[in-house]
Amino acid sequence: MLNTHTHLLLPLLIFSPLIASAPATPANQVCGTVQPPSNFYQIYEEEQFTNQTSGLGPFFPSGEFSFATQQEANNVNERDLIASFKNIPCPPTGRGPYNIEFNFVPDSRYTASGNTRIDVFAINGDLPSITFPDGEVLEIPTWATTNGQTGSLIGTFTLPTGADAGTPRVFFINSVVCRSTINLRFSVTNDSPAAGSVNYFSGPQAGLRIRYGC
Question: Is 90 within 8 Å of 180 (Cβ atoms)?
Answer without folding.
Answer: yes
